[in-house]
Amino acid sequence: MAILDVRDVCKDFGGLRALNRVNLTIREGAVHAIIGPNGAGKSTLLNCFVGRLTPDTGTVTFNGKSLLGIRPHEINQAGVARVFQTPEIFADLSLVENVTIPALAKRDGGFRMDLWSRVDTHADVRDHAEAVLEDVGLADKRHAHAGSLSRGDKRRLELAMCLVQDPKLLLLDEPTAGMSRADTNATIDLLQRIGERGITKIVIEHDMTVVFTLAHTISVMAQGTMIAEGTPEEIKSNPKVQEAYLGGAHP
Amino acid sequence: MSTATIGSPSDRSARSPTIAGSASNRADHVKFLIFAAAVLTMPIWLSPVGAAYPDLVQKFAIYGIFAIGFNILFGLTGYLSFGHAAFLGVGSYAAVWSFKLLTMNIVPAMLFGVLAGGVFALLIGYVSLRRSGIYFSILTLAFAQMSYNLAYSVLTPITNGETGLQLAHGDPRVLDGPAGAGLPSTNLFGVETVGYSGFYVCAVALILAYYLALRITRSPFGMTLRAIKSNQNRMNYTGFNTRPYTLAAFVISGMYAGLAGSLMAVVDPLAGAERMQWTASGEVVLMTILGGSGTLLGPVLGAGIIKYFENIFSAFNDQVLSRMFDFLPAGLGDLMVDLVQPFVGDGWHLTLGVLFMLIVIFLPGGVMEGVSRVAGRLRRVRSDRTG
């Protein structure tokens, strides 16, 4: 069953056609990677899923409901969580607070005026946050300032902030960009582990190791269009993909 | 234990898993009680430094409230308003109108002051919060200057323009019954609120204002505001509709300003447009940063320090100075007077400027950062001695 359905999406920036009649169907529970050379339109496409950009034409349907014209926080409340290329966390706050905040959003919705109770009396939210921190291996740093973490730990924290909301769809924009090999491997392990929870994931990634380890299905983009889709094996042997990536250097 | 940022392993094991950045409930209550006691006894412990007279301690309390409210917007939410004096002025006008039309009882005056500040903040905030950063600051500044100029000119029927709004003998005061000879004074159900009794009204208001700010800071709402300050982009993608949160913070801080404005009218029942001028808006920014923005106590300390120094330094004049340097030889004495003169009297803002620069450069977290540094050093010394 499709959880996300993208039909005929076009997006122009000035004279540049960033997305050209893009079609994409994401099955529920799948790990779906979108790959392609720089400037292929992968991030533009992702931004159309979260309300940052609105496509010029076409439809984006999530769980049978259109995502177009809806603001980012409403899309999140509908069950879409996002990890950014550079981890977006609350650097001035502690790790527990970083994870408590999305948990509160999940429990209380987009706006709730509770200015009298103490945060630490909301045991359900706090325990959930602590458990997720434990899960991603950051429990021993839970009172540290998030800004003091390493790049790899920041990514883990950002993942925890998404996981605590039990999203239906998790968008990962280059989750290992700028990471050391060790941090990359740790992130792959973590993503594989959370894969067992059955959250549908869309991964944009340059690192082919990551893509071929994680993904069930791979879509390949080049110059704003989808040029191929298939299993990792099919994609590896697809001549169109080789051409897009390697400029036809391979026979 | 203070609000330690990075817990060392031993630290953690000793502490129950509360959320960092928020002290325990009991520590908060102890601090609150100490604060309340210190505020109520200001006339006693401030007398050695020559600050224990009603006018000045009233100012400490009133500007303390103003700064606490400002800090909810600036310190917690990260929105720097340069127009908060507008709400202070509106609160004053509302209170004086309550004195003129209804009663000299201060309770309705304060309620109207808070209400007027809140409604006015809702209007200005709704428009200004469409932008953030410097654009937000400029918008608030523009609105406040607009209010100031309106109060001076076209709104004269409401504000009495340049003269300022004052009590008059012919005021209706429908709830008070027939007036005696002379102008009545403000009262709290019959008890006159002038001098020290006026101070105690302000002090109780300050204590309640502090308690509300404490509750807000520790609440989910307060944590949400701190998260907005830290990373608004992430907040949107985390499912929070940040606009109503920032607007609520703006309105709450406007209500604090309205309360402070109404208290100014309580202790001295008149209201003038100069209360809304940009210098007054700037002053509360200085108070908050000087004391430590984002902390609970800092803004109150900042307000006290600025009002105290204003009082001390602006009182110096040439005669006082030449008496001070009497003991020096004639030429040297005159030189000293010339050197010190620009920093005192009307020039005391120069002293304030220097003080502000020193604090911002050496203690970016304000006086409260200094306090926590000293406390940290003392704790280390003590643990060295025991360990």
Features:
heterodimer; A: 251 residues; alpha/beta; Rossmann fold; 2 domains; six-stranded mixed β-sheet; four-stranded antiparallel β-sheet; 35% helix; 25% strand; B: 387 residues; mainly alpha; two-stranded antiparallel sheet; 18 helices; 4 strands; 68% helix; 2% strand; globular
Category from helices, strands and their pairing of chain A: alpha/beta
State the distance separating the first and last CA atoms of chain A: 38 Å
The CATH topology of the largest domain in chain A: Rossmann fold
Cross-sheet strand order for the largest sheet of chain A: 6-7-8-3-9-10
Shape of chain B: globular
Strand and helix order of chain A: EEEHEEHEHHHEHEHEEHH
Terminal CA distance of chain B: 18 Å
Contiguous helical run count of chain B: 18
- Strand coverage percent of chain B: under 5%
Describe the structure.
The complex is a heterodimer of chains A (251) and B (387). Chain A is α/β, with parallel strands linked by helices and 251 residues long. Chain A folds into two domains: 1-79 and 167-251, Rossmann fold (3-Layer(aba) Sandwich), CATH 3.40.50; 83-166, P-loop containing nucleotide triphosphate hydrolases (Rossmann fold), CATH 3.40.50.300. Helix content of chain A is 35%, strand content 25%. Chain A contains nine helices and ten strands. Chain A has helices at 42-49, 72-77, 95-108, 123-135, 151-163, 181-195, 208-214, 232-236, 239-246, and strands at residues 2-13, 16-27, 31-35, 57-62, 65-66, 80-83, 169-173, 200-204, 217-222, 225-230. In chain A, strands 6-7-8-3-9-10 form a six-stranded mixed sheet, sandwiched between helices. In chain A, strands 2-1-4-5 form a four-stranded antiparallel sheet, with helices on one face. In chain A, β9 (217-222) and β10 form a beta hairpin. The longest helix of chain A is centred in the last third of the chain and has 15 residues, at 181-195. The termini of chain A are far apart. The relative contact order of chain A is 0.17. The model of chain A has no long low-confidence stretch (mean pLDDT 90). Chain B is mainly alpha-helical. Chain B has a domain at 49-277. Chain B has 18 helices and four strands. Chain B has helices at 9-14, 25-40, 42-45, 54-76, 85-101, 106-128, 133-152, 156-159, 195-218, 220-230, 232-236, 242-267, 278-291, 298-315, 318-324, 330-340, 348-362, 366-386; strands spanning 165-166, 187-188, 191-192, 270-271. A two-stranded antiparallel sheet of chain B has the order 1-4. In chain B, a hairpin with a 2-residue loop joins β2 (187-188) and β3 (191-192). In chain B, α14 (298-315) runs antiparallel to α17. The longest helix of chain B has 26 residues, at 242-267. The radius of gyration of chain B is 23 Å and the shape is globular. The two termini of chain B are 18 Å apart. The model of chain B is unreliable at 1-21 (pLDDT under 50). The A-B interface holds A 50, 71-73, 76-77, 81-82, 84, 88-94, 96-97, 100-102, 104-106, 108-120, 122, 126, 130, 140, 142-145, 148, 161, 165 and B 4-7, 9, 11-12, 15, 17-22, 25, 215-216, 218-224, 226-227, 229-231, 233-242, 244-245, 248.
